[in-house]
């Protein structure tokens, strides 16, 4: 994702691929010890063998310990299924929940704007996409009244069974408050909805006053009946956070309160594709069980991690500041995740010009931007947005100096564009 | 898969994960050069970034060159889609071919015995599985008359559109003759079937007189109209062959004569899950573009490759010889792939005992074998077999001495079992 890799993660993984490097003096002892421990847990002591379908048992145990530390709530390796990126786990859970036969089709509530994996998977599975709109006027907050509206509407033509949440949000960058999460859990409880919590950006929190609250932690803090009844699947990934290791395609889902028969079907479902990539499983282990104070790799690890996260926080602020100086652009604070999703006013003549070309107005803007400046951003229509509003998504990942230039170029282009079409 | 990894493959991949090791003097120059070339082709020069959805362009080019060398027929990078193991590509192609809406359901012809990914994927997609039986009396050969029978039967209740071939076969270990492949292609042409050729065992050919003929090569040698019309998808993987790198989950499909609109849908379909794991893509590149004579890694590479393949050939013969000495066991020659699939006679009292336990007879045998000897083999019923026949599948992967002991133990257990239930 354009960020510098964290040395320890890569060292351990490379050692597991090439154990002859265990003699290499330049690699720290703790990385070597970790590689030996992981190799011993691989089938045939090799990263080249298929693992068990839900993942290497040791890695599942390490994930469980990580979750227990994070939430202060017990976590069991049996409830953790490693996956080929969070994408794979999200699609598997959707498949599992949707595939039930029967009269009416399964409805899945998703936020708008959303990460397009959801709409694509819902379409592939012939389920029904039920949109609930995030509240742009309140920093893209999730409003339970809006959830209720979307559910009621959905009930008229399908059987809504699943509620998807993305927190922190992609593309919208909001971080949900603890109160809001509680409200959503109560709602899911009352309406008997299965909660899918996409928490892949859990380490990417920048705004003062924002904090990451996992759905599982809040659920257990709420106690019975919620903690015993509400079914939850929470997703994580090595693609985001401080590590940004998208290419490894590694993640996991933890299921909570899942019906045991359904969970067994899940185990069967994932076994068809054999197992997640082993190098990614190894890398995931280093993420959930990082070097500790006193370990040879600790200082460098912490320094690298801090550098990545503080640069991201800085770039999140920078983005918001620059955009909000431009009349016609309004950018909510980038509280978390890796994107800004500013709203842009487009003059009527630009709408006409877009129509003439058969393009959505924000697509028209983005194409012009690309043609004239080489800057590539994604039109809001790719994520969904309220009718008549226009946005684009831009990542905060480029190096600070480069990002600053991009933001300024984009802003002047916008101003010029508006003038041209006014 | 229990075989020793090939040094060059692992070195290049590890270097790409940990470029700081490029200074390491113990790693040969050609591996370093290769790693630099591949890293330069990665997004952001990093194995940690998502690649393009169909795979790194350079790797697709290298696969195309490999296919061109193999077949003597042009191959285009645009027709190659890298995947998360062959499994992923097989499921994607099935999804693409089945998903067409319309009146009657899509029928997919698969061999029996089959690799269970096919039946599972067909069930998931709500397509119709149409069985054609391989001819055990003739070394598990594919007989076009049997294909014709299965197709005619299928036409009575669904719309057969796809014909799957596994060559060399899993679990059956046969290698198809060139003539047979020609006959199958003619049949697909006449009946307008899409051919899916699972050729993941193409490097695993052991029997004298057997050779691997790719469907694509035969198709093009047949010339028009076949070469211009018959739609084909061929699958390969790093999991088998001399490399056996299952854990990396890397493979590809090449599509031939695919309708351009359908191919565009395929591109869209694979983009939903972002991309195949990058470490696996890198490893695949080293497989399709191995060290050449004169390269520092060449001698070791060839020696390692030969050692793996000749050991497998030896174990294939050994398996067949030992099993065929046992009255009641009949094992076809293991011409290719990595398994034997011997047929076992089971006495009537064993069938009764199995029935009493609610188990398939060969499952009953395999469970008893496991309990008494610790040897784990898979009952034939997991792959499908002709009614009233019983088999099990055993891999030839364990080291020779260990395999010999396993074969002998299994044989004596079988003899004892038969005596006990007679
Ligand atoms: C909200 C969200 N969920 C899931 C994913 C998929 O992540 P992975 O790379 O782990 O499949 C992404 C990737 O951008 C994302 O933004
Ligand atoms: C015939 C056949 N096809 C496909 C596969 C899947 O291979 P991969 O590991 O590349 O997904 C296997 C694995 O055993 C196989 O035997």
Automatic annotation (TrEMBL), chains A, B:
Pathway: Amino-acid degradation; L-alanine degradation via transaminase pathway; pyruvate from L-alanine: step 1/1. It is an enzyme of class 2 (transferase). It holds the Pfam family Aminotran_1_2. Its main location: cytoplasm. SUPFAM superfamilies: PLP-dependent transferases (SSF53383). Its cofactor is pyridoxal 5'-phosphate. It is found in: Cytoplasm. Residues 29-410 form the Aminotransferase class I/classII large domain. GO terms for molecular function: L-alanine:2-oxoglutarate aminotransferase activity; pyridoxal phosphate binding. It comes from the Eukaryota. InterPro entries: ALAT1/2-like, Aminotransferase_I/II_large, PyrdxlP-dep_Trfase, PyrdxlP-dep_Trfase_major, PyrdxlP-dep_Trfase_small. The keyword Transcription does not apply. The keyword Manganese does not apply. One of its GO terms (biological process) is L-alanine catabolic process. It catalyses: L-alanine + 2-oxoglutarate = pyruvate + L-glutamate. Its EC number is 2.6.1.2. One of its GO terms (cellular component) is cytoplasm. Keywords: Acetylation, Aminotransferase, Cytoplasm, Phosphoprotein, Pyridoxal phosphate, Transferase. CDD domains: AAT_like. Homodimer. PANTHER family: ALANINE AMINOTRANSFERASE (PTHR11751), ALANINE AMINOTRANSFERASE 1 (PTHR11751:SF308). Catalyzes the reversible transamination between alanine and 2-oxoglutarate to form pyruvate and glutamate. Participates in cellular nitrogen metabolism and also in liver gluconeogenesis starting with precursors transported from skeletal muscles. Belongs to the class-I pyridoxal-phosphate-dependent aminotransferase family. Alanine aminotransferase subfamily. This is Alanine aminotransferase 1. It comes from Falco tinnunculus (Common kestrel). The lineage of its organism: Eukaryota, Metazoa, Chordata, Craniata, Vertebrata.
């Amino acid at each position: 994702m354009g960020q510098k890799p964290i040395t320890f993660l890569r060292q351990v993984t490379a050692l597991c691929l090439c154990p002859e490097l265990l003699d290499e003096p330049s690699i720290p002892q703790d990385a070597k010890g970790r590689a030996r421990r992981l190799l011993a847990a691989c089938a045939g002591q090799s990263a080249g063998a298929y693992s068990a379908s839900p993942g290497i048992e040791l890695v599942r145990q390490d994930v469980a310990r990580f979750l227990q530390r994070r939430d202060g709530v017990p976590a069991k390796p049996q409830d953790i299924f490693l996956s080929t990126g969070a994408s794979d786990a999200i699609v598997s859970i959707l498949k599992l929940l949707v595939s039930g036969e029967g009269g009416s089709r399964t409805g899945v509530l998703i936020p708008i704007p959303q990460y397009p994996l959801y709409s694509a998977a819902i379409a592939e599975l012939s389920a029904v996409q039920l949109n609930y709109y995030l509240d742009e006027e309140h920093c893209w907050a999730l409003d339970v009244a809006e959830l209720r509206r979307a559910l009621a509407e959905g009930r008229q033509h399908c059987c809504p069974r699943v509620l998807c949440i993305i927190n922190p949000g992609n593309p919208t960058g909001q971080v949900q408050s603890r109160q809001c999460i509680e409200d959503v859990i109560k709602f899911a409880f009352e309406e008997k909805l299965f909660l899918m919590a996409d928490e892949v950006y859990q380490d990417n929190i920048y705004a003062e006053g924002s904090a990451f609250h996992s759905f599982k932690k809040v659920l257990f803090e709420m106690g019975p009946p919620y903690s015993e009844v509400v079914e939850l699947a929470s997703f994580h990934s090595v693609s985001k956070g401080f590590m940004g290791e998208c290419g490894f395609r590694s993640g996991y889902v933890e299921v909570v309160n899942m019906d045991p028969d359904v969970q067994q079907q899940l185990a069967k479902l994932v076994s068809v594709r054999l197992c997640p990539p082993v190098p990614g499983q190894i890398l995931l282990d280093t993420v959930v069980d990082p070097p500790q104070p006193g370990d040879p790799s600790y200082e460098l690890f912490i320094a690298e991690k801090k550098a990545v996260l503080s640069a991201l926080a800085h770039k999140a602020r920078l983005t918001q500041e620059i955009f909000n100086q431009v009349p016609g652009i309004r950018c909510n604070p980038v509280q978390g995740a890796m994107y800004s999703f500013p709203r842009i006013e487009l003059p009527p003549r630009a709408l006409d010009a877009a129509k003439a070309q058969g393009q959505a107005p924000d697509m028209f803007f983005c194409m012009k931007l690309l043609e004239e400046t080489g800057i590539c951003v994604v039109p809001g229509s790719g994520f969904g947005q309220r009718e008549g509003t226009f946005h684009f998504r831009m990542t905060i990942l480029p190096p600070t100096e480069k990002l600053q230039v991009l933001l300024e170029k984009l802003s002047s282009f916008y101003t010029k564009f508006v003038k041209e079409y006014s």
